[in-house]
Design brief:
The complex is a heterodimer of chains A (about 300) and B (about 260).
Chain A: H1 2-27, H2 36-53, H3 57-81, H4 86-105, E1 117-118, H5 126-145, H6 147-157, H7 159-164, H8 169-195, E2 197-198, H9 206-218, H10 224-239, H11 241-261, H12 275-284, H13 290-305
Antiparallel strand pairs in A: 1-2
Chain B: E1 4-15, E2 18-29, E3 33-37, H1 44-51, E4 59-64, E5 67-68, H2 74-79, E6 82-84, H3 97-105, H4 113-118, H5 121-140, H6 156-168, E7 174-178, H7 186-203, E8 206-210, H8 214-220, E9 223-228, E10 231-236, H9 238-242, H10 245-253
Parallel strand pairs in B: 3-8, 3-9, 6-7, 7-8
Antiparallel strand pairs in B: 1-2, 1-4, 4-5, 9-10
The chains are: A mainly alpha (about 300), B alpha/beta (about 260).
The complex binds adenosine-5'-triphosphate (ATP) and magnesium ion (MG).
Magnesium ion (MG) binds next to helix 1 of chain B.
Chain lengths: ~300, ~260
């Protein structure tokens, strides 16, 4: 039972981080191979504030998010302003992730270098994580529905047109990066206080791929998809040892395939919803909604035109 | 102070060795419909790209409402009241027609990021109002019944109309239309002429129109500029331009392409 709880806790932490990354990758269309950097920042921020400054755990978690955002803005603003292309940005982020890991590994005072920091209690419980997953999902759905979220979609869909319609491209991308940094930073803090020990080796570069895989598996224009995929990908290595070993190979192949053939991700632009269920029952009783008939009609029209 | 809504002076752009537009003086008065025509590759689209800030001119100046806009970011130019459509359609393809308009109406969020995350009452009220306005724009171009259709799945003629609706949603004073009738048959052209006239009269929007369909330009324009190989070839009212020897020669040389 305890084992089950621990797997679920790790799954929940991963979910929080993956839905954060979904805003940047899935909604704004910017791939990042370096978000483990924000996880590291979040983890160390929380631990340092808790252990050395006696700040309460809840506040530490918040601070982790805030610190990640600040660092996100510092690296995000110049990269977005200089208009890096998608792949340049992905590589810049990879560099960022590595830089953070090197800095932490080589700073003896406070960070304790490669040895890491221990000697703080286990404060991340399944309940805390469940609560934060729920809260994180609600806030994220709100964000996506808002004008800010819609600007992200506009940038992903058609950057040039978006800009000419008056969307502030730089600001939109920076906000997307900041939101993702906040969620991943919080995830890092929860992770540290779950493990009761933190070192640079625990948040390896491959963690960035793990997070990215969650978004790519879950679908590029969705929050619920990545949430589920994020949870599943954290549980899978626990159940299947072989998956744990081979997952990076699988992810590598997957990323290439997705980038080449299916840019919308494996499950596409879908939210998990009850609409199909309702529609199914509707059809069962022989009703066809007006919206549906329009859709079918014009799909035929579209085909005829092409 | 000039009394032109849009004015370019000595507008020039070179791409490597190619001079795509050279020394163009182009003027649009408020309330006009101005046609911009010329054979393929004449530099028409490039002129639009410079006016909207996508391509920086090599030389020359552009004034919109009296102030220089060279070097101003495209989104800032847009917010000053200048919008356009694209020759090679650039819709937000994978989302619905309605969402295309909603996004445009909300390009400047009327609330803070915190309010967005909390989805406060204010946010919900703005959302409802925006939805309503978005339907109005679709109605205007006759796309109301396609509100829920995925933009990229619409027939091209309707995609062009959706682009016009989206451009209008920015509430422009000046609208640049790049070949809005491309790929349309005569009947569709006629209804497009009605739509453009309607926009011009009811909304009081000044329009610059690039178009290969002679009917459409001649029918709508108060004035026509003819470009050839990046240079101004002729300029005047539709009748004068149609009978201009140079213009006829330039088009004949092209085999009078009707795209
Ligand atoms: N960004 C660019 N880089 C290099 N060359 C360009 C660029 N944009 C346009 N050109 C060139 O400038 C010339 C003018 O192109 P433009 O698209 O403005 O012509 P156009 O008048 O709109 O033609 P059409 O009727 O075919 O649309 C062409 O030779 C084109 O290849
Ligand atoms: Mg053109």
């Amino acid at each position: 039972m305890q084992y089950f709880g621990s797997v679920l806790t790790l799954a929940g932490i991963n979910m929080i981080m993956v839905i954060g990354l979904a805003v940047l990758v899935g909604y704004t269309g910017l791939f990042s191979m370096g978000h483990a950097g924000f996880m590291m920042i979040g983890a160390y921020t929380a631990v340092i504030f808790y252990k050395y400054l006696g700040v309460p755990f809840a506040v530490c978690i918040l601070l982790s998010g805030v610190f990640s955002v600040i660092i996100g803005l510092v690296i995000g603003y110049p990269t977005m302003r200089s208009r890096l292309t998608g792949d340049q940005f992905a590589i810049a982020m990879m560099g960022f992730g590595e830089a953070i890991r090197m800095i932490v590994s080589n700073t003896e005072p406070v960070f304790n270098g490669a040895l890491g920091i221990s000697g703080f209690p286990k404060l991340t419980s399944l309940w805390v994580v469940t609560l934060l997953v729920a809260l994180g999902l609600i806030l994220m759905f709100n964000f996506i529905k808002s004008a800010y979220g819609k600007n992200c979609i506009a940038v992903r869909e058609q950057e040039i047109a978006a800009e000419i319609m008056g969307v502030d491209i730089v600001k939109t991308k920076v906000i997307a990066l900041a939101v993702s940094a906040f969620y991943v930073g919080v995830g890092g803090a929860l992770f540290a206080f779950y493990m009761t020990f933190i070192s640079p080796a625990m948040i390896a570069a491959s963690k960035s791929s793990d997070l990215l895989a969650g978004v790519v598996f879950g679908g590029m224009g969705s929050i619920s998809g990545p949430a589920i995929a994020g949870g599943a990908l954290a549980i899978l290595p626990e159940i299947l040892r072989a998956f744990s070993t081979w997952r990076l190979v699988i992810y590598g192949v997957l990323f290439v395939v997705v980038m080449l053939f299916k840019p919308e991700g494996l499950l596409g632009y879908r939210e998990i919803s009850f609409k199909p269920v309702i529609r199914f029952f509707g059809r069962l009783f022989g009703k066809k909604t007006a919206a549906e008939s329009v859709k079918t009609d014009n799909r035929n029209g579209g085909d005829a035109d092409e | 102070m000039s009394d032109f809504l849009l004015e370019t002076k000595n507008l020039t752009v070179r791409f490597g060795g190619l001079t795509a537009v050279e020394g163009l003086d182009f003027q649009v008065k408020k309330g006009q419909i101005v046609g911009l025509i010329g054979p393929n590759g004449a530099g028409k689209t490039t002129v639009f790209n410079m006016i909207t800030g996508v391509i920086p001119p090599t030389e020359g100046e552009i004034f919109f409402k009296g102030s220089g806009i060279v070097g101003v970011r495209p989104d800032r130019i847009a917010r000053r009241g200048l919008s356009r459509t694209f020759q090679n359609i650039r819709l937000f393809e994978k989302i619905s027609a309605l969402e295309n308009i909603v996004i445009t109406l909300q390009r400047e969020p009327g609330y803070s990021l915190v309010e967005a995350f909390l989805r406060t009452k204010k946010v919900r009220e703005i959302d409802t109002e925006i939805q309503k306005r978005a339907y109005d724009y679709l109605e205007l171009v006759g796309l109301r019944e396609y509100a829920d259709s995925v933009a990229g799945s619409l027939p091209y003629g309707l995609q062009r109309r959706l682009e016009i609706a989206r451009a209008l949603a920015t509430e422009p004073e000046l609208l640049l239309l790049d070949e809005p009738a491309a790929g349309m048959n005569n009947e569709e052209c006629d209804s497009l002429i009605d739509l453009i006239r309607n926009i011009h009269e009811k909304k009081g929007i000044t329009i610059v129109l690039i178009e290969h369909h002679t009917d459409v330009v001649v029918n709508l324009s108060d004035e026509i500029y003819v470009l050839n190989l990046g240079k101004l070839l002729a300029h005047g009212d539709p009748h004068a331009v149609q009978t201009n020897e140079d213009v006829i020669r330039a088009y004949l040389g092209q085999g009078r392409k009707n795209k």
